[in-house]
Design brief:
The chain is an alpha/beta fold. It has 2 domains: about 160 residues, Ribonuclease Z/Hydroxyacylglutathione hydrolase-like (Metallo-beta-lactamase, Chain A); about 80 residues, no CATH class. Helix content is about 35%, strand content about 25%. The protein has 9 helices and 14 strands. The strands form 3 sheets. The chain has a 6-stranded mixed beta sheet with strand order 1-2-3-4-5-6, with helices on one face. It has a 6-stranded mixed beta sheet with strand order 7-8-9-10-13-14. Strand 3, helix 1 and strand 4 form a beta-alpha-beta unit. Helix 5 packs antiparallel against helix 6. The structure holds zinc ion and fe (iii) ion (FE). The site of zinc ion (ZN) has 4 residues, from loops.
């Protein structure tokens, strides 16, 4: 049965998501940058938020939680490892746990790197992966707390999911990420095509989420660090996968789109 997912732009470039299980009416909100746009969308659809799923503790993902929980009575779920710096949780989960939203079951995946204690939620039946600021469309989150090795492991865990997985990330950074990717792999034909389509979508005011994992594998430089073509593009033919990932992440930090 379907899990209907609505994209809610918040703040300047954040995304929150509403995921509605048609069979039961259970409705999850994934990350709450601000309550207003989410409450308006819920009201317009006559849906009642039953759950709030949090990916990580940064304020642009949690600032609206208290207001949304107070307005809806939604049950707040987040990482046990981060319970001390998340809003009060009704359920603290650990990697490997399963969260149930009506008939839908979501797997909790450990995705440290951007922060420690960052989790993602994967709903296999809906092929939906909510990544917060770990894997992003054509990019990955900045390493505020974790090491390159932790983020590389994180991306490896996510890359093990099926190609058809739809990635719902926490921000709209695709256009800048694509510009950066082109500086690294100017000869990647799939990347050129995708950059054009991203520019089209953005010019029309559309969203670049969700992206499929297959598209990401072909064009997201951070998922390509182990590939010989990426290593030669960087002149790092003999380097380890991790060294290549580390170099990419450091170049991205210095990139001003
Ligand atoms: Zn963040
Ligand atoms: Fe963020």
């Amino acid at each position: 049965m379907a899990f209907q997912i609505v994209i809610i732009p918040c703040l300047s470039d954040n995304y929150a998501y509403i995921a509605h299980d048609l069979a039961s009416g259970a409705t999850a909100v994934i990350d709450v940058p601000e309550p207003g746009p989410i409450l308006r969308e819920l009201a317009a659809r006559d849906w009642k938020a039953s759950h709030i799923l949090l990916t990580h503790h940064h304020s642009d993902h949690i600032d609206g939680v208290e207001a949304l929980a107070a307005a809806t009575g939604a049950f707040v779920i987040g990482a046990a490892a981060d319970a001390n710096r998340l809003p009060p949780l009704d359920l603290a989960v650990a990697p490997g746990d399963v969260v149930r939203i009506g008939m839908q079951q979501g797997q909790v995946i450990d995705v440290p790197g951007h922060t420690i204690g960052h989790i993602a939620y994967f709903f296999p039946e809906a092929r939906a992966l909510f990544t917060g600021d770990s894997l992003m469309v054509m990019g990955c989150g900045r390493l505020f707390e974790g090491t390159p090795a932790q983020m590389w492991d994180t991306l490896g865990r996510l890359m093990a999911l099926p190609d058809s997985t739809r990635v719902f990330s926490g921000h709209e950074y695709a256009a800048t990420n694509a510009r950066f990717a082109l500086t690294v792999e100017p000869g990647n034909a799939a990347l050129k095509t995708r950059t054009e389509s991203i520019d089209h979508v953005r010019a029309a005011g559309g969203f670049t989420v969700p992206a499929t994992l297959a598209e990401e594998r072909a064009t997201n430089p951070f998922l390509r660090a182990a590939l010989p073509e990426m290593k030669s593009a960087l002149g790092m033919q003999d380097a380890s996968d991790l060294a290549v990932f580390t170099e990419l992440r450091s170049r991205r930090n210095g990139f001003r789109g």
